[in-house]
Amino acid sequence: MELKYLFNSLPYIKPELILAASLVIIVVADLIITKKKELLHYIALAGIIAAGYFVLEQFSMNAFAFSSSGNKGMLTVDSMGAFFKGLVLTASFFVFLFSFSSNEINESRSKLGEYYALLFGMILGMFFMISASDLILVYVSMELVSLSSYVLAGITKQSLRNSEASLKYLIYGAVSSGIMLFGISLIFGITGSTNLYEINYILRSPETNRVILLLAGLLVFTGIGYKISAAPFHFWTPDVYEGAPITITAFLSVASKSAGFVLLIRFIKVAFIQNSLNGYWQLLPAVDWKTILLVLSILTMTLGNFAALWQDNLKRMLAYSSIAHAGYMLAAMAVLSNQGLIAILIYFAIYLFMNLGAFFVVMLISNKIGSEEIDNFDGLGYASPFLGVSFAIFLVSLTGLPPTAGFIGKLYIFIALVDAKMFLLSVIMVLNSVVSLYYYMRVLKHLFLRKAEGAPIELKVSFPNAVVLLMLVIPVLVLGLYFTPLVEFAKNSISVLGF
Amino acid sequence: MENFPILSFITFLPILGMILILFVPKKQEILIKWLTLLVTGVQLVTAGFIWRYYNYALGGINNLNTFQFIERFRWIDISGLTWLGNVKVDYLLGIDGLSAPMVFLTALITFIATLSSWNISKSIKGYFALFLLLDTGMFGVFVSLDFFLFYIFWELMLLPMYFLIGIWGGVRREYAAIKFFIYTLFGSVFMLLVMIGLYFSTTETLANGSKIFTFNIIAMMDPKNFTATGILSPFNPNNLRLVAFIALFVGFAIKIPMFPFHTWLPDAHVEAPTAISVILAGVLLKMGTYGILRISYPVFPEITHQLAWYIALFGMINIIYGALCAMAQKDYKKIIAYSSVSHMGYVLLGMSALNSAGFSGAILQMFNHGTITAMLFLGVGVIYDRAHTRGVDDFGGIANQMPIYTGFTTLAFFAAIGLPGLSGFVSESFVFLGSFSVPSIRVISIVSTLGILLGAGYMLWTFQRIYLGELKEKWNKLPDLSFREYAMLVPLALVIVALGIYPSAMLNLMNSSVNALTDFMNNAQKLYSLVGKY
Fold first, then answer.
1. Which of A277, A449, A483 should one mutate to test binding to chain B, selecting the residue with the greatest count of B CBs within 10 A?
2. Residue-wise pLDDT tens digits, B188-204
3. Do B84 and A401 touch (CB under 8 A)?
4. CA-to-CA separations, A27 to A33, A145, A267, in angstroms, rounded
5. Residue spans per domain, chain B
6. Tell me: the pLDDT tens digits for B68-107?
7. A308, A435 Cβ separation under 8 angstroms
8. What is the ipTM of this complex?
9. CB A132 within 8 A of CB A77
10. Which of A19, A198, A446, B167 has the fewest beta carbons under 10 Å from its own?
């Protein structure tokens, strides 16, 4: 690759450059600032906002960057990528705000520099994951995300649980990325290329070896499935979510998952789709992704929901619930249509608010009572009605009941499914939402229906936290009744560069 | 008066009240109560206005022009990509002779339920806030004519109901609350799928001549609006209309509750506080049958004709089975709960006849059952407040101690049995008149009359065990009705007697709509045979 191509491509990675710069600034600032470590919070927030500014201009872009061979690049910059970059940044923004008041983070204040540096490394990796159109870059960016998150999962080193989470994450991650790399090498062996666009071009010829391709596709999917915690690659999720600091758990459950989903969308849509007919994507005969996604989606949502029924630890329960939500989004993916893609975008945007909200409330409560066990939450809805009602709204939204935004998310998935005449999947999905009602309501049962034992606990929500909470609650309520802007936005952001 | 959005007013007034209550300090319990009473009182007056300006000649059902108090504006407007179509959802409210009685019933019952909530002592603020949220949901269901809107209101009721039973209920309240929630959600998720299926099968013509998919219930009733390939379109030879009808019907049947989906009802009733039982039996159960008449029947008329016999059969099972279950109970409240199952069976039987007598009977029975059961549950509440037990065998001879109270309950009992001169008699006789005249369900109709006999059996037996006989020593301190209890019971008693003597007050109100519905159902057979598969 010539140097001039490199320089020509730089304008396309402005947000990534900002993130890298912020990372460096934080590391340096951490060395200089010795007393007032809190400043790091603000530096981090500033970095996010600056990156967000440059993401905005990517919504209108449609370009390849870093062309390795021919005119297809290592990176593609398109509106879908911009949408998910915006999502990752929004999630980071909220998680940084959570970090202000998280006991876990504040107790290990000396590590705040590493904490943010690693978070920025992770966000940077996600950004590259989102735009990567070359399997090598996919792998490298995934490793960047993974390595940062292994450390972050165990960063507080306060408890055994913490270190256990980190180690488990590492082992699962190493194995699945190894498997993925093997898949990539097989694909390279068949097609002679690692660029998704070129792979697509080669797969169109009839003489590809389908058995090996199927195997390779599945192996790559293993790596992606691990990131989005789809069954059967989800085993790490509950342990890591339970053990990691809650800010990191919240971040993993939204941002990491969304980056994984973009990868999945790009991988399938760019490499394996022949053309698009009335918004429906016609698969190449090479690999039957529709069936694979269908089966995995059913498996993921059912397993997530049923396992969540038995959880007594709220973080663990939310971990399984996030697996179930990945299943719902996989269902929309299985439609293989623009409509399904819109549904995924809408769902993710809403999922961000409701899931982060739920984690935030759990964090605020466990800051006070030092536990995430559901039995310790008895009667706490009355200790702070504001917190309790907000939690109720998030949980109702996660269940997918109107008039909350979660309903709109589910509605659009159902619209995609019914329009594609995938009735079995839609019936399984509605039954799953009924199951999920039970464990979400179980939390409300403890919060409101039970009486607290012992002395009443004082739960005061500080003003800044109340503002953050409102920033999460209001979208969940408003988008449930007036979702036009979100849908319009998602509809304008589904352009994936390619055919 | 012309342009005042009276239906939005009556629907969203409680939300306003709820917000006000949220700002009232927790200690101001009296203020919160009076505020709620004011809101429901204003609703009652508004309902009176609606009645005053209601045009008896207009039929409604499948013709939007003959609905009244229509409010319509575009709520969701998403411009289209070709393959997605324009998503447009209307905020469309309106009432006809089918929903008007339900609106009046809801206004009356919520007002009385507020009075009956006066002795709630635990977290008053939360209780009345949720109560008002529930209130909005109930009105919304009865006035919305857009399926999407209807669904939102339908689901809106679930959460407040869960908390109202779960927090303020009896010993097994947690179990009862979640059971209610899961049962109802189970039904409504299928409703959601059918709703989306209908959306993709129905188009509405815009002013500029373009066609868009629609959630408009009225548009779904006209076969001309169906697309050629929609999955629930009669033009599509592989349509799934039968499956969709059953799914939708089950969603509504759970709410009625129809056998075999009735098991949540006794639990919910027994655990719920009195006021919530009153609302549950008085209004919520009607939503099931209302939904069937408003949506299932006119949208799937040809399937309705196919399955009418089965609906009648389930009606019969409800009547007999509910009565037998009621007979076996020892808990006063459970008896009344099962009597609801039995009485809602009459509604199903009446509507399965598909003729005007049957429809009149069904709708009238919905209204009458609402008032009668409300009164019965209030009766249970009054005695439970004093004695703190509901075991039928714990009592005896209450009539000696509380004669006025016993007088009111006697009226309710006799109305429930169907004594001539009281409202229950009129609706039940219309139901039998309607169903007997249809040859295919005549036998079912005849067997169902057993229900009256059984009804008299368990009602009188219960009455005898509680109110007659010798007064037990421990009950000789029970005071008779208080002023507040008079205020709850007298209006209901008046309505029951008035509609018994002069049922035309209600029948005239719904007459045009009943005729419109009957005509529509009869013509639909011809209409749908034209479009092919019937």
1. A449
2. 998 999 998 898 888 88
3. no
4. 10, 18, 34
5. 6-530
6. 888 888 888 777 654 555 678 889 999 998 999 999 999 9
7. no
8. 0.91
9. no
10. A198
